[in-house]
Amino acid sequence: MPRGLKILLVGVGVVVFLVISGLLARFLAVENVERQDVLALLKTEAAGDPTGMLAQLHDCSTSCATIVRSDAAKLRGTGAVKILAYQSAASHTIGGRTGQARVARKLGDRLPDVQCVTIRRVGNPVSGITVSLLAIGPPIPLTNDC
């Protein structure tokens, strides 16, 4: 095989590798974005700020807004918000998807709370994936699923 052809094939292989690595990194970064958005929502909830929570939720219905106001009053507290467990039905999808994320969290010295957050993903790894939080539910028993 001529030397020039070998160099060309190696160059094409490097470019393909870089493109696949970039797409994979972009895909995996969305998982972190989703979790950080949910954490920000939970911190706003712990601060007792329903207006701030509603600003973070897209397409929050009237019943959703009622739950938000109630949760912000009931779940207000001091201390750091820590996510203990996070299970998202919308994660690890190449295309768009809407699903529930079950979040177990701890606030300061209080016992853990579990809530469900509705999440919508739109897009793909090539054009980009956007994450939107749609709604947050009231606390559920620790062993319940969303």
Name a few traits of the molecule.
146 residues, alpha+beta, Nuclear Transport Factor 2, Chain: A, 3 helices, 4 strands
Please describe what this structure looks like.
The chain has one domain: Nuclear Transport Factor 2, Chain: A (Roll). The protein is 44% helix and 27% strand. It has helices at 3-46, 50-56, 62-74, and strands at 81-88, 97-107, 113-124, 128-136. Strands 1-2-3-4 form a 4-stranded antiparallel β-sheet. Helix 1 runs antiparallel to helix 2 (50-56) and helix 2 crosses helix 3. The longest helix has 44 residues, at 3-46.
Task: Tell me briefly what this model is.
With 146 residues, the chain is an alpha+beta fold. It has helices at residues 3-46, 50-56, 62-74; strands at residues 81-88, 97-107, 113-124, 128-136.
Please write out the topology.
Elements: H1 3-46, H2 50-56, H3 62-74, E1 81-88, E2 97-107, E3 113-124, E4 128-136
Antiparallel strand pairs: 1-2, 2-3, 3-4
